[in-house]
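During the reporting period, our protein records have gained a structure token line. A sample record is set out beneath this paragraph:
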Amino acid sequence: MTASAATIVLVPAAAAAAPVLASSLGRVVRVPLVVFEIAFGILLGPALLGWVSPDEIISRLADFGLAMLFFLAGSEIDIDRIRGRVLNRSVLGWLVALAAGLAVGICVGALLGYGAIAGVFIGIALTSTALGTIMPMLRDAGELHTPFGTAVVGIGAAGEFGPLIAISLFLSGRNPGTAALLLLAFALVAAAAITISARGHHHHLHTMITTTLRTSGQFAVRFVILIVAALVALSLVLGLDMLLGAFAAGLVVRFVLDDATPADREAVESKLEAVGFGFLVPVFFVVTGLRFDVQALTENPTALLLLAVFALLLLLVRGMTGLFTAPSGAAARDRRAIVLLAATGLPIIVAVTDIGTTTGDLPAAPASALVGAGMLSVLLFPLIALAQRRTSRSPDMDIALNDDIPDEA
């Protein structure tokens, strides 16, 4: 199947135009880049102009883009920095969010006649945090390596990895016991890969990376793609979500690059970000806009109401449980910022609703409402959160978190 000329040209055009528009408006208000990418997709897609339809080729590229987003999120996580209190509280917060999300989702499904299974899809979607979307915003704002950013990364790590496990356990179509065994098998392989990558200095590997870094060999990029492909393939063979493999691959690569020279590590990371944020990730967000079912919202008053309800539930179910990670001494503005960033979710919502609509367990109306709520969260929540953070550099929060963060070398 060949892609149409319009698709070949207009999707990259939308991806290129998005940062230009974001930069132009940035003088007035900072709007997350993904908002423009999604908006261009809605504008160009079947919902409005109808110039581009998500054909098979662009859809596969979008799948790669989603996997790359999760890989980059995993590769950005500094385990040593978030381990201990931050990670423990983040995991506890997510488990509470899962219990609350499933309870709320099943109630919504029962009240609206969608059924308990649809409620499980809704509940898992409500527990997600878009770490891969938030981290570039934190980096651009200079917050990624601050104690505040560390807390948000811990929340995001739990809110991205946790739902992937829940998807594999509850939405795979298998018996939960069988799914748990397969998940355990994947975890053992991934843990072995992480352990191997974290030990030793990998001298021969880094020599090859250094000697091909600026040649056509580009061993580092090819090796990373191999790691991503291997763990994604393993997750697919075991019947798990491919994003689980992509996220684990990011953790493995993080450890592999830890003992590289600073110059080499920075160069490799720059190349991977160029592949991800320069090519594949924008395709995913543009295609998300192309696929967005505006008609299911506009023709169904219940769906419009659900969009607002789901946006509020993201704040209550996922956002409020993010406060488990905030120290008691944090300023009120910092706590509000944490709630908003924890409740920012879109990629996993898209993945969950795609599974639900494909299997027929989740009707189009709540699926579109969930995706719409995720888009709304990406548009508004980080914008308000970072504005709150700029007006409150809480020393109490910095001190409280620094007590639990190892000193950097």
The longest helix spans residues 262-291.
